[in-house]
Amino acid sequence: MTVHEDLAQGFLEDFQKEPSAMTALLELRDRHISGDMNEGDIYGTGYADALGSSARFAPKQWPLHQHAAFLELQALVGSGAVTYTCISTGGAPGADADREGNAAKLAQTHPRFTAHLDMTQNGADADGTLRWEGRLEVSRPTGAFFYGSACRNASQSILVKPANVAASSVPLEVGDSWPSRTLMHLIQYGAVARWPYGSKLIWLFLNFNRGVDWWGDRPRRDAPAIRSGGGIASSGYRVAPFVTQSVAPFWGYIREADKWTDAASEDIGL
Length: 270
What we know:
Layout: H1 3-15, H2 19-33, H3 46-51, H4 64-79, E1 82-88, H5 99-106, E2 113-117, E3 128-132, E4 136-147, E5 156-165, E6 168-174, H6 179-188, E7 191-195, E8 201-207, H7 248-256
Parallel strand pairs: 6-7
Antiparallel strand pairs: 1-8, 2-3, 3-6, 4-5, 7-8
Helix pairs in contact: 1-4, 1-6, 4-6
């Protein structure tokens, strides 16, 4: 078992101690397996695949610890610890072996960003890097929800607030990547860029709670050590409280993303 898989196993063990967390995990697994996360429009299935995907194994074949990592990622997004924005590229990624073709598509990434693909990726921590200069403005969920109309049967909407993100360089993962790897990058480096198969967009995830000072000049690289069995040894990182709530708000958050007016892509033509 790899380091990031061991991390996911630790989260699963934590969830198993909380019946409400296990209920949320199984509900989310069922919705993921059934295709309920297919949003259509520009995003397609990109959001779910950006969190984690595997060409060899459909979600119904995932080990349970990967569903646990997937749930933890959802909890971090829904609670406001993690937010994301999407960046245009020259197309969807091809096979891993077609590095020149993928590099050519990444060369067409929106000019505010520079995507670099490691042409050998021989045991590296990531497939490349995504860099940007200047500050980004992103929408950060507050963890609170509201109803857009007086009718209580109306769907929930996420309450967001603006946040600034300093210039930085973050790991880039192309194609398939387990949810546990996405989660590990967010814990270690405070950010990760995902360019999943089938998506023409790079999904930039930013963690405001772990290992990053987004209001400084650069993210801190003093990543805490990941201990065997899950969690973070130096910070006591444990199960996000949000996972014990209903999973329904996750879907409202995903769908509301299309309606944001202050996303990082606003005003720069993404």
